[in-house]
Amino acid sequence: MHWIDWLVLIAFLGYTIWDGSRRGAQSENIEGFFLANRSMPWWAMGLSVMATQASAITFIGTTGQAYVEDMRFVQIYLAVPFAMIILCTTLVPFFHKLQNFSAYEVLEERFGLKTRLFTSFLFLLSRGLGLGIIIAAPAYVLSLLLNLPLSPTILIIGITATLYTMVGGISGVIRTDVKQMAIMLGALIFCFFWIQYLLPEEVSFSDSLYLAGTLGKLQALDLSFDISEKYNIWTGVIAALFLMLSYFGTDQSQVQRYLTARSLNDARKSLLLTAYAKIPMQFFILLLGVMLYVFYIFSPAPITFRATDPNVQQPREIQTEQQLQQQFESSHNQRRTEALNLLENPGSANEQAFKQADENLNEVRSAELQRQERITQSSLNDTNYILPFFILNEIPVGIIGLIVAGIFAAALSSVDSELNALSTVSIVDWYKRLDTQEHSEAWYLKSSRAATVFWGILATLAALALGETRSIIELVNKVGSYFYGSILGVFILLLWVKRANGFGALTGLICGMATVFTFDRLYDNPATGTYQFIMPWNAVPEGFEKTIEYLWLNPIGTAVVVIVGIALSYVWKK
Fold this sequence. Notes:
Blueprint: H1 3-21, H2 30-35, H3 42-53, H4 56-68, H5 80-89, H6 91-98, H7 106-111, H8 113-146, H9 150-198, H10 205-214, H11 233-250, H12 252-259, H13 264-298, H14 315-344, H15 348-376, H16 386-394, H17 399-434, H18 441-466, H19 472-481, H20 484-496, H21 502-520, E1 522-525, E2 530-533, E3 545-546, H22 553-573
Antiparallel strand pairs: 1-2, 1-3
Helix pairs in contact: 1-9, 1-17, 3-9, 3-13, 3-17, 4-8, 4-13, 4-17, 5-11, 5-13, 8-9, 8-16, 8-17, 8-18, 8-19, 8-21, 9-13, 9-17, 9-18, 10-13, 11-12, 11-20, 11-22, 12-17, 14-15, 17-18, 20-21, 20-22, 21-22
């Protein structure tokens, strides 16, 4: 980056640390540190929730997802408004009435200490793993943009977020999230309009949509019912509903936000803000990825957006790469010509020629990606490198620094809230609950800050060890789907099954986790009709595919916990 961009970025990081830390003096006890003395306005809480959701994972992964595939990913957010309405009438008033610190405190009174500790442990495990991914996600991009090695980039993100979260607590987290959300949205909006500005004069916005629609890139709804398909409307409305109910209703990183509310109405309004804004925002980010695809129809594009180190290639591989590059350039020119022909003379024949040219180009791209996988011996693609490539090569000096700051803002706004939530559960549900000695508020405040530092260091180390992944946005949801459905089942037993007891709830939770793991490792071969259970460390045989996609693990886990919990509670009581 240019020195001006570096100056902008350094100024942003410095301001973020100062702004997040300056509220620390107001935290005289753990209620101030974890809950901001229950004094936060609804709009700040709502924007903070959205900032956590609209993370660098969304910024990077979702645009790449739309570029590589289409806009069907938006379907998993169709359940958000329904989930928010359900939570506003159930769990939100329940938590607000009890005035608790963590979402898992309430489980002890009905189900006992073991259930509370096990459920909170699952949260620590799932969010601890997820936090490493959240730090690693923007680090791949930022290391490319900053021309820094990956490890120092991860350290910058981890240390910055840990520092101001450790000092400022939840008040610092929420107030910095609001500003970070504004910077991130500004960066996205600029990229969107800059793409339109860079397109050829004869290509209007409606022309861009027409070309994208011709290629099927604007497909947002899939009405087919198939549990082996990742994204269709049934997955979004049914399976994802359980994911959203659990995430916003039982995940401490989200619950803690509306526990800081001044009143029950403020808590509800903060969630409804997300309900109204989430789908439009996600749709816009996916549309940005589609517009990037249209942009590279007319502008020079790389065969892949990530390069293979030439030092690890054999002469034969280099020759193959050169041949594929020549084919790609020829296919790219042909696709551009066919696109212009289609805009000048719309018709089925020109549409078919354009689609065929696009298919030919993507076949060459696929061949190069397979060649890279063969060299690196890993199943990687370039999904997470597409937007960074555009920023680095098309955005003017000075603005790059602002957009990189937007990516940093998106990363920090997710990391800080997770750190604060992990610290809350560690202190409230474990240390303070199990410690037999009485300590002062000052002692617990120091312990809370120490726990924040501990989780910050652990998450940063996890990010360093994580390595790359195909689609970061999918990986985060997959990690959550292992836990969320089962945890939601415990809260359903708590609220609506009076007969449920601790034995049934805890055993149901364990059975739910085991069932989720079993279904997640189930594969089938459509050609032969055979099924196979494959452990994570074993290779998947050729021709086998996942029987059930990850979002459906959420309702499965919930159902098993509720059924087993009710059955065992009845038997145990009788």
